[in-house]
Amino acid sequence: MERPENLIAENFPPLQNDTFLRAARGEECRHVPVWCMRQAGRYLPEFRETRAGQDFFASCRSPEICCELTLQPLRRFPLDAAIIFSDILVIPQALGMEIRMEPGRGPVFPEPLQSPQDLQKLKPTIDVSQDLGYVFRAITLTRHKIEGKVPLIGFTGAPWTLMTYMIEGGGSATMSKAKRWLYQNPTASQKLLQQLTDVIVDYLVGQVAAGAQALQVFESHAGCLGPQQFAEFSLPYLREIAQRVKQKLKSEGMEVVPMIVFAKDAHYALEDLSQSGYEVVGLDWTIRPQEARERTGRKVTLQGNLDPCALYASKENIEKMAKTMVEAFGRRAYIANLGHGLYPDMDPEHVGAFIAAVHKHSEEEEK
Ligand code: CP3
After folding, report:
1. Beta strands in 115-151 (DSSP E)
2. Relative orientation angle of helices 315-329 and 348-364, to the nearest 10 degrees
């Protein structure tokens, strides 16, 4: 059992490497900080061993397992940030939807929302400290056990991305069931998105209270929306989340931590995203670094964006691509990452080569 003080969100060890937080705030850094989406994942043999035979969402409920999985990549690589092991789908689950992780298929809701009447099946409100308190306990424990080596990032799915899973019942190539709602039931769609927004705000504030030092909002399914629908069904909620989380942190006397928005494949909305209240805009690999800089101006930090599949290349080529990427973004106001998460069949050594190359080539430029 954990020592009780490790489950109390105070007296955390002092932070030793603040590069990620400095870059997020646009401050000068000694090197470009780097972390990888899905850095705690099945590409690591130790991850597969810890997860073996355990139900995925049962693992998410164990602070000890979440802590161990979060720390694993830090033992291997000189990463500049950690992201808490959890999942975006814990929110629909907390709202009362049953979810299963099916090997080979991913997360599945056996009873997805089929019509606006089904919204009545969701709990109208939830108490995040009750229903998602296990995530907060995992964050607090991990923040102690990380010993101040690097900052700990908390996260959530954005309302639209959560809505797609709740309606599709699982992954989908077209998202046509969820998009049908936007065209046929816009009012019910807005109602659901607002309900999710309200939960997300409390959830993120609770993560900071528990010890998260930055927050990332994953709008992973932005790409299936066009500019019009993004403006109507995603952006207003992303904005509201940033604004209300910061307001609440301030009014509750907590530190206002940097926030990252990652709207995958939403290059059509880059200007809007850079003015949506987030310090950092995450980019997928389909956009050129120079173009992203030109379109977002100097006010935001950019994060990304190497094609994750580039890690299938040789280590020499990975180094070259990382160097080109760092040079194209420039050292200031930049956090290196991939354009999406790591895949299970990736070679940990190639992940290490990417991280080392970012550090090497971002320090060199100084000379
Ligand atoms: O290291 C990290 O990035 C932190 C952990 C993390 C997980 N999920 C763990 C996980 C994060 C940030 C997420 C977010 C998440 N979950 C997103 C948004 C990011 C993205 O990828 O766009 C989404 C869409 C989900 C939903 C989800 N969870 C899917 C589609 C899957 C199946 C993926 C697959 O390859 O099977 C999951 C399961 C999941 N979440 C795994 C991990 C490490 C793999 C399953 C396992 O460990 O058994």
Report:
1. none
2. 40
pLDDT at 361: 95
CATH of the domain at 101: 3.20.20.210
**Residues ≥6 apart with Cβ < 8 Å to 91:** 132, 156, 157, 162, 196, 199, 200, 203
DSSP 286: T
Ligand 1 pocket test, pick from 35, 36, 37, 38 with the greatest ligand atom count within 8 Å of Cβ, gives: 38
Which atom of ligand 1 is found nearest the CA of 104? 36
The residue nearest atom 4 of ligand 1, judged by CA position, is: 85
DSSP string spanning 56-104?
Answer: HHHHHT-HHHHHHHHHHHHHHS--S-EE-S--TTHHHHHTT---EEETT
Helix (H) or strand (E) holding 289: helix 289-296
Catalytic, out of 165, 203, 237, 334: 165
Q: How many domains does the chain have?
A: 1
Q: What pLDDT, in 10s, does the model give residues 22-51?
A: 999 999 999 999 999 999 999 999 999 999
Q: By CB neighbour count within 10 A (0-12 exposed, 13-18 middle, 19+ buried), where does 60 fall?
A: buried
Residue 80 structural domain:
4-366
The chain-wide mean pLDDT, for the chain, equals 96
Atom of ligand 1 nearest to the CA of 341: 21
pTM score: 0.97
Is 87 near ligand 1, meaning CB less than 6 Å away? yes
51 annotated active-site: yes
Residue 17, token pair as written in the block: 């490497």
Atom of ligand 1 nearest to the CA of 171: 30
